[in-house]
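Technical note accompanying the year-one report. For the benefit of new consortium partners, we illustrate the data format agreed upon in the data management plan: each record pairs a sequence with a structure-token string. No post-processing was applied to the example shown here.
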Amino acid sequence: MRNVIIGADGGGTKTNLVALDAATGRKVATAATGSINVYFAGMEEAVANMKAALAALELQEDDRILALAIGDPAMDDSSPE
């Protein structure tokens, strides 16, 4: 089992994720998807894009996600939906 920390950089056009092994700091996976910014994509598409990006990391079944940090300018305000 591996403990994993995931960072997400959500922009207006794309979102990039990186997963790190918490014990070593080594990168174990990366993924990219569409926007998770609700002002650009809408809530339904933003959530679908985030789920797709997490799945695209293809983490091992026994990996344990310790933290998920998301940077997204839309998170500063209330959602429009």
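Partners are asked to follow this layout when depositing records. Residues 31 and 56 are 6 Å apart (CA to CA).
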